[in-house]
Amino acid sequence: PNPAADGYFLYSTTSLDDQSDLIGRVIVEHRRTRASYIWCKPEIELPIVEIRREKMTVPDFPGYNAVRISHANLRTITRQKIASWHAALANVSGIYLIVDTTTGHPYVGKASGEGGIWQRWIAYIANGHGGNIELKKLLNEKGAEHMQHFQYSILETADTHASELDILSRESHWMDVLKSREFGLN
Q1: What's the N-to-C CA distance of the chain in angstroms?
Q2: pTM above 0.85, yes or no
Q3: What are 112-165's pLDDT values in tens digits?
Q4: Is the Cβ–Cβ distance between 111 and 96 less than 8 Å?
Q5: Distances 6 to 9, 14, 34, 134 between C-alpha atoms, Å
Q6: Which of 113, 69, 115, 111 has the alpha carbon at shortest distance from 90?
Q7: b/e map 108-145, b = 16+ CB within 10 Å
Q8: Distance of alpha carbon 65 from alpha carbon 45, whole angstroms
Q9: How far is residue 39's CA from residue 148's CA, in Å, rounded to a whole number?
Q10: For residues 106 and 98, is the Cβ–Cβ distance under 8 A?
């Protein structure tokens, strides 16, 4: 590995001609340590646990009314800064929903200001809770890896220049509709 200027490591890989059809289809097992990266030494063994029929891809942005995405896919989208998703989410404010898929408990949140929903969702990718007290408590109880059970969707969008008061009002509306204060994570 070669250390890059921004603190990341760059790896050189070589594609084997007779195995190019496996790109995007092979699933390997890796047990994450406390480190946030994998030290890919020549002697490392990553056992193959699955070879999928179809290549794994993240689809282009499906439209605001069709967003329903797992934490893992959102992490991929934000880390790779997939253009269609970034363009759509960075340019709108709005109200979003996070659901703990193990319990069905909802969390209603808002994104306003510069960076829109994109910027807000990056905070959830970073730590799983984005500063929310109930999500912090849940992750403290279940462990940080529990964020893998979160699903994200958009309830409504607004122009990034919408007033903070208007966005707060819409957030409160959705909390009431979904009973997320009484039965969820708000």
Answers
A1: 43
A2: no
A3: 988 999 999 999 999 999 999 999 999 999 999 999 999 999 999 997 778 999
A4: yes
A5: 9, 24, 20, 33
A6: 115
A7: bbbbbeebbbbebbbbbbeebbbebeebeebbeeeeee
A8: 42
A9: 23
A10: yes
